[in-house]
Give the backbone structure.
Amino acid sequence: MRIIDNIDDDVLALVRYLAAQEKVSLGVMLSDLARKGLKTVTLEFGSRAGFPTFHVPDNAAPITPEQVRILDDEA
């Protein structure tokens, strides 16, 4: 099904870039991003040794000290 609508230029450019990186069509990438955006996220919280904890998916990328420093500098 083909839908034509107004898509902001910056959004379209990013989707084109991502589609090229993944070697998929623009439509496939838009559909994938829409599904991810509409997916309900469930957050799991807990406690361990008196400290609050949260679940991190197994496929999550690690956060490096350098990334923390960069974000801390931006604050």
Q: What stands out?
A: The longest helix spans residues 9-22. Helices lie at 9-22, 26-38, 65-74.
